[in-house]
Amino acid sequence: MMDPKEFDTPQDENRDNENIDGVNDKLYHAKYISGMYKDWFLDYASYVILERAVPYVNDGLKPVQRRILHAMKGMDDGRYNKVANVIGQTMMYHPHGDASIGDALVQLGQKNLLVDTQGNWGNILTGDSAAAPRYIEARLSKFALEVVFNPKTTDWQLSYDGRNKEPLTLPVKYPLLLAQGVEGIAVGLASKILPHNFIELIDASILYLQKRDFDLYPDFPTGGYIDVSKYNNGLRGGAVRVRANIEKRDSKTLVVNQIPYGRTTSSVIDSIIKANDKGKIKVKKIDDNTAANVEILVHLGPGVSSDQMIDALYAFTDCEISISPNSCIIDQDKPVFLDVKTILRRSTENTLALLQKELEIRKSELESQWHYSSLERLFIEERMYKDKEFEEAKSVDEVVAHIDQRFDPWKESLKKEILREDIIKLLEIKMARILKFNIQKATDFILSIEEEIAKIDKQLGQMVKYTIDYFRKIKKKYGKDKERKTEIRSFENIEATKVVVANEKLYVDRKEGFIGTSLKKEEYLFECSDIDDVIIFRKDGSYFVTKVSEKAFIGKNVIHIAVFKKNDKRTIYNTVYREGKQGTTYMKRFFVTGVTRDREYNLMGDKAGSRLYWFSANPNGEAEKLKVTLKPKLRLKRLIFEVDLGVLAIKGRTSKGNTVTKNEVLKITLKEKGASTLGGRRIFFDKDIFRLNTEERGAFLGEFSGNDKIVSISGMGDCTVHSYDLSNHFSSDIKRIQKLDSDRVFVVVYWDADQKFYYIKRFQIDPTQKDTISFIGDNPKNKMMLVSDNGEAIVKIHFGARNENRLAEEVITSDFIGVKSIKAKGKRLTTFDVAHLELVEPEVIEEVEDIEDETTSDDDDNQMTLF
Question: What is the dotted CATH code of the domain comprising 240-323?
Answer without folding.
Answer: 3.30.1360.40
